[in-house]
Design a protein that fits this description.
This protein is mainly alpha-helical. It is built from 15 helices and no strands.
Length: 283
């Protein structure tokens, strides 16, 4: 990749983010419309169900989850989407809708050149969501559903830049320069996308800022700190001494009261949560 290619690509990214409603190319419009409706808790579940019904695969995923043991303790099976939406709750439906949409991006033929990169990000996202779900219970102040959603979306800015690069293959020829570009744009991309999708401001802040949580001054949201600590747990999963050392000097970990003693519990439960998250997403 030449400097000219890089500058041209960054001009393209800037123009895309400046659009009234920037989006990841190929993201199902049905899913985005549903997410926007789900941002309004006054929206009737039947209205959300009518939107989701336009995508048979998404509908089947939601029905499958609504009839699972986790959400259907009475074992009353339903084939009605409005019932499924009410049973799952708006936060779970929104999370499942967004992650389904991102799965469609990951598997789209148009992203053949970057499929491996997107697949690796998805694997890390599922792990991060699972760790966040477990740690949320330990530290308090963050719901499990919010933590799971934030974990699954924590790399959405990176996904956007990589997806855009699939139409500019020259920028992929220099991995080091391309990674620098991803690093430079992922935060602003995440903030812009999630704001347009009308997600909770705390979630937007956490996804956009978690990478620099230890360096932030002033008040930092618990979800932001939680995502940062989850990244440490994930990065040093097989290095317990280094994990303990990193946590001991981390302001984010200190604010949450996490020092590493939870490692065995977190990783013990996260394996079950990985399976649960993947089952819920039909992945």
């Amino acid at each position: 990749m030449s400097p000219g290619d890089s500058l041209e690509f960054q001009s393209y990214l800037r123009a895309e983010l400046d659009r009234p409603e920037p989006a990841i190319p190929g993201l199902p419009e049905v899913a985005l419309r549903g997410v926007r409706r789900l941002a309004d808790i006054a929206t009737p579940g039947a209205q959300v169900a009518r939107l989701i019904a336009a995508d048979p695969t998404l509908s089947a995923n939601l029905l499958r989850s609504a009839n699972s043991v986790a959400y259907n303790p009475t074992a009353i099976v339903t084939s009605e989407l409005p019932v499924a939406v009410d049973r799952l709750g708006f936060e779970t439906v929104r999370r499942m809708t967004l992650t389904y949409a991102l799965q469609q991006v990951r598997d789209a033929p148009r992203y053949r050149l970057v499929h491996d990169r997107l697949a690796q990000i998805w694997q890390r996202s599922v792990m991060t969501a699972s760790l966040a779900r477990v740690l949320a219970v330990q530290v308090g102040g963050v719901t499990r559903e919010m933590a799971t959603t934030a974990g699954l979306l924590h790399a959405v800015g990176r996904i956007w830049v990589i997806a855009c690069a699939s139409a500019h293959p020259a920028v992929l020829q220099d991995p080091v320069r391309f990674e620098t570009t991803v690093q430079a744009w992922q935060t602003s991309a995440a903030r812009r996308l999630l704001t347009v999708w009308q997600l909770d401001p705390a979630l937007v802040e956490a996804v956009a800022d978690h990478g620099s949580a230890d360096a932030l001054d002033g008040r930092v949201g618990r979800l932001t700190d939680l995502l940062f600590v989850c990244q440490l747990f994930g990065a040093f999963r097989d290095a317990p001494l280094e994990l303990a050392e990193r946590l001991s000097v981390s302001p984010a970990a200190a604010r949450l009261g996490v020092r590493g003693k939870e490692r065995g519990l977190v990783f013990g439960h996260s394996a079950d949560e990985v399976r649960a998250v993947r089952d819920a997403l039909c992945d």
